[in-house]
Automatic annotation (TrEMBL):
<dbReference type="GO" id="GO:0004672">
    <property type="term" value="F:protein kinase activity"/>
</dbReference>
<keyword id="KW-0067">ATP-binding</keyword>
<feature type="domain" description="Protein kinase">
    <location>
        <begin position="303"/>
        <end position="560"/>
    </location>
</feature>
<feature type="binding site">
    <location>
        <position position="331"/>
    </location>
    <ligand>
        <name>ATP</name>
    </ligand>
</feature>
<dbReference type="InterPro" id="IPR011009">
    <property type="entry name" value="Kinase-like_dom_sf"/>
</dbReference>
<keyword id="KW-0547">Nucleotide-binding</keyword>
<keyword id="KW-0732">Signal</keyword>
<dbReference type="InterPro" id="IPR001245">
    <property type="entry name" value="Ser-Thr/Tyr_kinase_cat_dom"/>
</dbReference>
<keyword id="KW-1133">Transmembrane helix</keyword>
<keyword id="KW-0472">Membrane</keyword>
<dbReference type="InterPro" id="IPR024788">
    <property type="entry name" value="Malectin-like_Carb-bd_dom"/>
</dbReference>
<dbReference type="Pfam" id="PF12819">
    <property type="entry name" value="Malectin_like"/>
</dbReference>
<dbReference type="Pfam" id="PF07714">
    <property type="entry name" value="PK_Tyr_Ser-Thr"/>
</dbReference>
<dbReference type="InterPro" id="IPR017441">
    <property type="entry name" value="Protein_kinase_ATP_BS"/>
</dbReference>
<dbReference type="GO" id="GO:0005524">
    <property type="term" value="F:ATP binding"/>
</dbReference>
<dbReference type="InterPro" id="IPR000719">
    <property type="entry name" value="Prot_kinase_dom"/>
</dbReference>
<keyword id="KW-0812">Transmembrane</keyword>
Length: 560
């Protein structure tokens, strides 16, 4: 609660981050408005960084920071996800009071678990029409607590339909593009007679979500979505089955916002690999031994290295599956690679400490004898090279490619925060910029870093682009599969940025921060162009198809 703390008579507004990722935006309705933000976060490190970011609308402040531990059996989320609380609903409550937890070590001392509570800044409300609230005569979970550690005061109340058949209600999400995870909590509050039965099904957005739910007497049961759901509204229908004699019930509901976005990862071996010193090769242990797999475990999760999903400069990448069904990519160091062990070690050290939504998340590692491997999250949607070369997929638009470039460059910045420390300055930022420049050229051209030819030697992508650029022939530089029209200046600026990254002399290359700035400008130019042109945009290829003389038409940038 701000309470005019800075004497400016103005409500502050600031951003909240966890690590380098946006958590939420903090706003106040008035000076007495209490704002509480909650997130379920999978920590990849032994510490968590929370940042209050000043956005020029008042000095950020914080009153209380609370940390609590969840068992893996409750809110299960893989390392790439964070669940931001959207709203708690104490569905059957008639008091609207804030629930207090004095003896529960798994939850804070106070938290707004109520649909009408004023302390929550979200605007979502829950209305269950034609329903009747009722409560239990004894406390729920007084003997056996569920893994979700739900407060008894919440689960002791519920609603049931007036018509005895179904509970139908909807939640307005305000944005159909947002993704949500839903948790519905049930507990039987009445003693069921021998000739009675309460059983119900659950539909979400017209689709069957869960069937034959039978709540237990004075004991919590939780039904949750294993995959995120979205839509302008989340429409629920909880209805009794044919064999049920009693109506359905609902005790509580939680809605979490999925902070994971569909990402295309840029993966490549650094050109300067990481020239790392070999004086400590194999002699530096990794810190977090609790994340170490034995070699036999790696063999098991990869099914004896059955499926190859990629190859790098120092080894092969295999598909794997952990015991909790999480898919992973297992990158194993080739026994013949004498220069790669330090690169592997450094990469594992970095990924254990640097987490960014545009960097592949580290899961575990293996370091046993001559067997060294790194286990990452699995890129279910494929990597960048696959999206560029696979003719069966829709080609990425120019705007999408620019967004990928900006995201990848920002992920590089996150990695560079610690890279000097772990490599003793042997790998400089400028060598990383060269590698990124190659990736940027791949994005622009749709070609691989090494362009293979059947009738002559293979060609480096820089050598292929340079003569075309010298002639101003950018038409033949750009990926011909790229759909839609795009701004000429945006394309030229991106090519110039890529070429600036790849001089052989490292001091001639820009910093990664400068690259990020340039690419953001390219993206803003393209966004403005799309907004101005709208539905009148024509296909880039169509522009050249209508040339009756077949003359070469080069793209010429406007003065800037």
């Amino acid at each position: 609660m701000c309470g005019n703390y800075d004497k400016q008579d103005k409500l502050p507004e600031f951003d909240l981050y966890i690590g380098v990722n946006i958590w939420d935006k903090v706003k106040f309705d008035n000076e007495s408005h209490i704002v509480i933000k909650e997130i379920i976060h999978f920590s990849l490190m032994d510490h968590i960084n929370v940042c209050l970011l000043n956005i020029g609308s008042g000095t950020p402040f914080i009153s209380t920071l609370e940390l609590r531990h969840f068992h893996n059996s409750s809110y299960r989320i893989p390392p790439i996800k964070s669940l931001v609380l959207y709203r708690h609903f104490d569905v059957g409550s008639t008091t609207g009071q804030i629930i207090q937890y004095k003896d529960d070590t798994y939850v804070p001392q106070s938290i707004p678990f109520n649909a009408s509570s004023a302390v929550d800044s979200t605007k979502m409300t829950l209305n269950v029409p034609q329903s009747i609230p009722f409560n239990a005569s004894s406390a729920v979970d007084s003997v056996n607590h569920s893994e979700y550690k739900l407060p008894s005061m919440v689960m002791d109340t519920a609603v049931r339909p007036m018509n005895n058949d179904s509970l139908d209600f909807e939640v307005d999400t305000s944005d159909p593009t947002l993704e949500f995870y839903i948790y519905l909590h049930f507990a039987e509050l009445e003693i069921i007679q021998e000739n009675e039965q309460r059983e119900f099904n659950i539909n979400l957005n017209g689709n069957s979500w869960k069937e034959s739910v039978v709540p237990l007497y004075l004991s919590s049961t939780t039904i949750n979505s294993s995959t995120p759901v979205r839509g302008p509204k989340l429409k629920f229908s909880i209805y009794k089955t044919e064999i049920s004699t009693l109506p359905p019930i609902l005790n509580a509901m939680e809605v979490y916002l999925n902070r994971t976005t569909t990402r295309i990862f840029v993966t490549y071996d650094l050109v300067a690999a990481k020239q790392l010193p070999r004086t400590h090769q194999g002699g530096r242990p990794l810190k977090s031994d609790n994340r170490q797999f034995t070699y036999s475990e790696v063999v098991s999760i990869t099914n004896n290295f059955q499926k190859i999903v990629g190859k790098g400069g120092f080894g092969t990448v295999y598909h794997g599956c952990l015991s909790d069904d999480m898919q992973v990519a297992v990158k194993m160091l080739s026994p013949s690679s004498t220069d790669g062990s330090m690169q592997f070690l450094t990469e594992a050290q970095l990924l254990m400490r640097v987490h960014h939504r545009n960097l592949t998340s580290f899961v575990r590692y293996c370091n046993e004898g001559t067997n060294f491997g790194i286990i990452y999250e699995y890129m279910a949607y494929g990597n960048l090279a696959e999206h560029l070369s696979d003719k069966t997929r829709d080609a990425l638009s120019w705007k999408e490619r620019l967004q990928i470039a900006v995201d990848a460059a920002q992920g590089q910045l996150a990695e560079l925060l610690l890279i000097k420390y772990y490599t003793s300055n042997s790998l400089t930022e400028r060598s990383d910029v060269y590698s990124f420049g190659i990736v940027l050229l791949e994005l622009i051209t749709g070609k691989r870093a090494i362009i293979k030819s059947y009738n002559k030697d293979n060609t480096n992508i820089v050598d292929w682009v340079s003569p075309l650029l010298a002639r101003g022939d950018t038409r033949n530089i750009i990926d011909p599969r790229m759909p839609g029209n795009f701004d000429t200046n945006s394309v030229w600026k991106a090519i110039e940025t890529a070429i600036a990254c790849v001089p052989l002399i490292s001091i001639q290359r820009p910093s990664m921060s400068h690259v990020v700035i340039e690419l953001k400008e390219c993206l803003e130019i393209e966004k403005a162009y799309e907004q101005d042109c709208g539905p009148m945009m024509k296909s880039f290829n169509d522009t050249f198809d209508v040339n009756p003389l077949g003359l070469e038409m080069d793209m010429v940038p406007q003065a800037r």
